[in-house]
Design goal:
mainly alpha; single chain; 10 helices; two-stranded antiparallel sheet; binds zinc ion; 2 strands; 2 domains
């Protein structure tokens, strides 16, 4: 596709799509395409913070910027219970579901306050115990593995310093973190989408 085709495509995208590319996908675009994207944002009078969001994804992240994004995320209201009293953290939750012929063991990323993360681990364990164990032969094996996995993950639900999962969420979603400075509700929406992905 040449640049004119790309420009034409961007013209036809709706605002939502343009915002999504600007805050989530800009890091993977060529410089010429970034210019097209920025021009489109200006032309449509979209929130100019989107341009910062694009720029933040295309330059190297400094330690102080990382710490700033960390503080924004950790102090964000919990997207699940809306509470602000507990800091946000991130974890992986393992869950097992056995179907007629196969057993499915999935690990998924979850971001919420410590209490909600604890609850997600417990709920996943209950679900695995109900729906996972009976698939032979992998049901019981994976169910026990997922219990062990969740109990070791749970230990990091209340860490003061950002744990590895939270840090890697920030690094992979710089555009969203930058946008959260002026539109915190977009971060809530993005976390909800991440939490509901599986
Ligand atoms: Zn919560």
């Amino acid at each position: 596709m040449d640049l004119n085709d790309i420009r034409e495509n961007y013209k036809n995208f709706d605002d939502y799509k343009i915002e999504k590319i600007a805050s989530e996908e800009a890091g993977s675009l060529r410089p010429e395409v970034l210019d097209i994207l920025k021009a489109e944002i200006k032309k449509r009078n979209l929130n100019l913070n989107l341009i910062d969001s694009v720029d933040s994804q295309t330059k190297e992240l400094t330690e102080s910027e990382f710490n700033e994004y960390c503080a924004i995320l950790k102090n964000h209201p919990c997207p699940k219970c809306k509470s602000k009293t507990q800091k946000i953290n991130a974890t992986m939750v393992g869950q097992v579901i056995s179907m007629i012929i196969m057993t499915n063991y999935e690990k998924s990323l979850k971001i919420a306050c410590s209490n909600c993360l604890d609850e997600m681990h417990s709920k996943a364990n209950t679900k695995s115990a109900l729906l996972g164990w009976w698939g032979i032969p992998w049901g019981p094996i994976h169910t026990i593995r997922s219990f062990m996995f969740n109990s070791s993950m749970k230990k990091n639900n209340r860490t003061e310093k950002p744990n590895e999962i939270l840090s890697s969420f920030i690094v992979s979603n710089i555009g969203i973190m930058e946008k959260a400075k002026t539109e915190p509700e977009k971060l809530t929406e993005f976390i909800n989408r991440t939490n509901n992905a599986i």
